């Protein structure tokens, strides 16, 4: 006999029909009741019996607690008349273990029941916590012993667990030893993490970019660290191992210069760099030298940039620059015009610096069509305005002269300009 059958049996045995005088009189009169009367009596009795069973089940069904899943909202099961409440606190500890606290309400006091949770280790892979599909918990005995069944917590009923980001502060740099004049480049192994990047560069400088290009101001050894901070709380969430940086001393390159006032003007450059191994002078693709000091004659007026690079024993180099202003062009002190008319005034042409310098040269003169007019290597033989080949006087107009001059050091310089014949 199951529970339902036993409940009906007990209800029928204890049921007492109420006394009705009219019913007994009708029964006595009809010793042999008709089928209709008998059917009415049986129907009435069955209705009363059914009413008694329903009342018994409604008022006397024991309280039951569902144990197949935890519900998220308070509800009433119409068939079993069971009340359950939402689990109020469900958390994980720092090791990934489940800690569960539940509320149940068998009465108005809503007693707090703490569940004893069977620990099931979780596995962390690729920053994702894998929660077991089912975690069984056994209840602690309460004072009233009202909770005695096992609660089953299913993963689908828990709050979704966010994957934890794996923040890594690892410094990558191409070089850890460089000269003072060079920049160090620091990047993180993971360059785009959702965090604040804070670079401690070892000289009290802090940079907050995701990568840093930095030039130290003094030579020495520095310890560089990368700190990652939370975007909201600014708390430190990861710190790199320190990277040791060595900055080598570089030469303090410097020079001076001055302009001469001789027949051929030139600029004299003097090196003032200390503790160097080699030097390199450069003047805008016009001149270069590896000498300690040197001089140069600027032909055309203008502004010129002069660079000096010094290198020390450690291979470190620095470059310094100066801008030189040349106010006048230099063309060997040649006149711009002459008049070969026999009046003994400006009757010939020769750059005035050539006789004074006493250096080897070749002077060549062309007409506007590019035809050779005159050529000489003797400063005592100026051009008299005649064509060299046939001695015919050159007509008035503009002519071009070119002088190739060989300096004392063997270098060759080219000068050129125009000369006008006017009679």
Radius of gyration from the CA trace?
A: 56 Å
In the predicted model, the low-confidence regions spanning at least 5 consecutive residues are 58-92, 97-164
Report the strand count.
30
- The third-level CATH topology of the largest domain is Immunoglobulin-like
Mean pLDDT: 75
Structural class: mainly beta
Q: What is the level 1 CATH name of the largest domain?
A: Mainly Beta
Number of helices: 4
What CATH architecture label of the largest domain applies?
A: Sandwich
Overall 3D shape: elongated
What gap, in angstroms, lies between the N and C termini?
151 Å
Helix content, binned percent? 10-25%
Q: Which strand-content bin applies to the residues? A: 35-45%
Question: How many structural domains are formed by the residues?
Answer: 5
The main sheet comes to: 6 strands, mixed
Keywords:
mainly beta; five-stranded antiparallel β-sheet; 30 strands; 423 residues; 5 domains
Describe this structure in words.
- The protein is built from four helices and 30 strands.
- It is mainly beta.
- It has five domains: 16-60; 75-157, no CATH class; 171-243, Immunoglobulin-like (Sandwich), CATH 2.60.40.10; 255-326, Immunoglobulins (Immunoglobulin-like); 337-421, Immunoglobulin-like (Sandwich).
- Strands 11, 13, 14, 16, 17 and 18 form a six-stranded mixed β-sheet that branches. The chain has a five-stranded antiparallel β-sheet with strand order 3-4-5-8-9, with no helix packed on it. Strands 26-30-29-27-28 form a five-stranded mixed β-sheet, with no helix packed on it.
- The radius of gyration is 56 Å and the shape is elongated.
- The protein starts with a helix and ends with a strand.
- The relative contact order is 0.06.
